[in-house]
Design a protein that fits this description.
Largest sheet: 4 strands, antiparallel
CATH topology of one domain: Tetrahydropterin Synthase, Chain A
Structural class: alpha+beta
Helix content: 40-55%
CATH class of one domain: Alpha Beta
Order of helices and strands: HHEEEHHHE
Number of strands: 4
Radius of gyration: 42 Å
Number of helices: 5
């Protein structure tokens, strides 16, 4: 029994000598160490992403009239035709000046290609019920390729519509 008392007395003294439990010391060190790290680091800078401005597509009617007098192909005899039209193109608002410069640079070539296209039509094609619509589609393709050259994704603008001003076939 004396040994038991001795052991109980030693246990009380050992508890008093230990001080704080190791878990508390570890937690306190982590808190103080973490606070030191936070205080020593520069403040966090948040990057704000600026949205690119959304570009609008403008539909512009070109002010110059394309006017042609030509002889359509015939089986026999002669035929005469006149056509005058404007074209409409679609361009992004930030590339409007670039599109106009492209039109100025390729204008003569476009007029020549249109005249060749019109002269290759037969009289029956021009007088058909849907002759003007088919011709308008072909003119759109021709003007688009001539005025705004390049690959489909890299084009400055696109010709989207033909507006006939004058149409006479004899």
């Amino acid at each position: 029994m004396a040994d038991d008392k001795k052991k109980d007395g030693e246990g009380k003294e050992a508890a008093k000598k230990k001080g704080l439990p190791p878990l508390v010391l570890v937690a306190t060190g982590a808190i103080l160490g973490g606070a030191g790290v936070v205080l020593a680091r520069p403040p966090k800078q948040v990057e704000v992403k600026v949205q690119q401005p959304a570009h609008e597509y403008l539909t512009i009617q070109h002010p110059d009239l394309i006017e042609c007098q030509f002889n359509p192909r015939t089986q026999a005899g002669k035929a005469f035709a006149q056509a005058g039209f404007y074209f409409v193109y679609t361009v992004r608002d930030d590339r409007e000046d670039e599109a106009f410069e492209s039109i100025k640079a390729h204008w003569d070539r476009a007029r020549s290609n249109v005249l060749l296209l019109l002269g290759s039509r037969t009289l029956t094609e021009l007088l058909a019920d849907n002759g003007k619509r088919v011709l308008a589609g072909d003119l759109i393709d021709e003007l688009d390729a001539t005025l705004f050259p390049g690959r489909k994704d890299d084009k400055v603008a696109r010709v989207s519509e033909i507006l006939f001003n004058k149409w006479m076939v004899q």
